[in-house]
Amino acid sequence: MQPIIYDVAVSLDGFISGASGDISKFAHNGRVVDDYFKRLGTYKTAIMGRKTYEFGYGFGLEPGRNPYPHMQTVVFSDTLKVPEPAEIQVCTRPTPDAVRDLARTADGPVYLCGGGDFAGWMLEQGLITRLILKRAPCVLGTGTPLFGACARPVSMSRIRTGTYENGYLLEEFEA
């Protein structure tokens, strides 16, 4: 079974975006971003919820297009409508078994792209194998929480920590 990796930038106060999806406080270049793109190249499947997929529309992503052309991309949603033929697969509300099956059949690591609510559900179901945080040196005050409204306590082991010259802290955890 391939690992499911939640690789995400997060503010000091635990938000993956600010109000109205604002990501302007997060780095858009530099070594922290270069390292992230290197990791993206190793992932073979991307999974996400509808809100995360539609977030890409604001950056020019067209409905049905794959934001990660080198990966199989699966969007879990009961309501997302995309034109046919689509470059992505849209699946209804996920079940733990469906996500495990996807990880079993993937050609390599599975990238949990987000968002907060979907990641919270994944955490509650025990489906996240590894967590990679790019902790930004900023406080957003409000926005999308790292794990949505997840109420289940979960312990992880820190396996790596690194720093970047721009004040970012890289933290890697295993379940």
Strand and helix map with partners:
Blueprint: E1 4-10, E2 15-17, H1 31-40, E3 45-49, H2 50-55, E4 72-76, E5 89-91, H3 96-105, E6 110-114, H4 116-124, E7 130-135, E8 144-145, E9 157-163, E10 169-174
Shape estimate: globular
Major sheet: size, sense and barrel closure?
A: 8 strands, mixed
Query: Helix/strand/pairing class, anyone?
Result: alpha/beta
Low-confidence stretches are: none
Helix run count: 4
What fold name goes in the CATH topology slot of the largest domain? Answer: Dihydrofolate Reductase, subunit A
Q: What is the CATH architecture assignment of the largest domain? A: 3-Layer(aba) Sandwich
Radius of gyration: 15 Å
Strand content: 25-35%
Percent helix among the residues?
Answer: 10-25%
Mean pLDDT: 96
Total strand segments = 10
How do the strands of the widest beta sheet line up side by side?
A: 5-4-3-6-1-7-10-9
Element-level helix/strand string = EEHEHEEHEHEEEE
CATH superfamily of the largest domain: Dihydrofolate Reductase, subunit A
**What is the count of structural domains?**
2
CATH class of the largest domain: Alpha Beta
Distance between the termini: 15 Å
What does this structure look like?
- The protein is α/β, with parallel strands linked by helices and 175 residues long.
- A hairpin with a 5-residue loop joins β9 and β10.
- The chain folds into two domains: 6-10 and 13-43 and 122-175, Dihydrofolate Reductase, subunit A; 45-106, no CATH class.
- The mean pLDDT is 96.
- It is globular.
- 20% of the residues lie in helices and 28% in strands.
